[in-house]
Amino acid sequence: MNTQHEISQKQYQDKSNDYLNSMVHRQGIEFDKIIQRIKSLPQAPQILDLGCGGGHVSYAVAPFAQEVVAYDLSTDMLEVVQQTAAQQQFHHIHTQQGAAEQLAFEDQQFDMVITRFSAHHWHHVGQALQEIYRVLKPSGQVIIIDTISTGRVVLDTFIQTMEMIRDLSHVRNYTVAEWVQFAEQAKLNPIQIEKQKLALDFSSWVARMRTPLMAVETIRYLQQGVSSEIASYYAIQEDGSFTNDVMYMVLNKA
């Protein structure tokens, strides 16, 4: 049996270019929010892009940062980030391989930690946040962007099932209340929480992960058989496209 980390590495092997070119990952209203927060800092920060994937956060913040470390479990992703950063002349973007639950950095190394669409793959969110706390400088900030659950059981069951059938490395979409609890247990204080909707084109959503045909058909079966409540909430379209809930959360280290 594979560990969760081994499953994640296998799932993202040879998919780095798919994520680099993914419009969902390249665009988002959260990028402006992140940049404005960085600009409000007294000096150019050292930033950890945790679970960097194709590196879109790293490229967006690099012009405003002293240093960016792109950190991911997938070496394939990190190779693409390294190549793309060099092409864009971002020589202060560096890469480091590892898991969120065990950060390979010194205490109080970073002014800011940003993680975008990664946390639902972490197998121990509480431990990861404790590690984030450790590597943050005093008064450092954390920005977490991730898909979330509503907490309503019928909606939660549907979205978690669909996500895992598409991608075996999916662990869980948590509720905002759960995120607040995780943060407080790690001694990180929520200072901003917003929700937004993410529109997902079904064909590119499954193609990006190269979801097997049988799994794609299973997801479509679920979508077509659910109640009107679920179909309406997630705005499921005839082609399978849908919307998902996303959280934008800012925390600080007291």
TrEMBL record:
Listed InterPro entries: Diverse_substrate_MTase, Methyltransf_11, SAM-dependent_MTases_sf
Domain of life the protein comes from: Bacteria
Domain Methyltransferase type, residue spans: 48-144
Leader peptide range in chain numbering: none
GO biological process, one term: methylation
UniProt similarity note: Belongs to the methyltransferase superfamily.
Protein name: Methyltransferase domain-containing protein
Organism: Acinetobacter apis
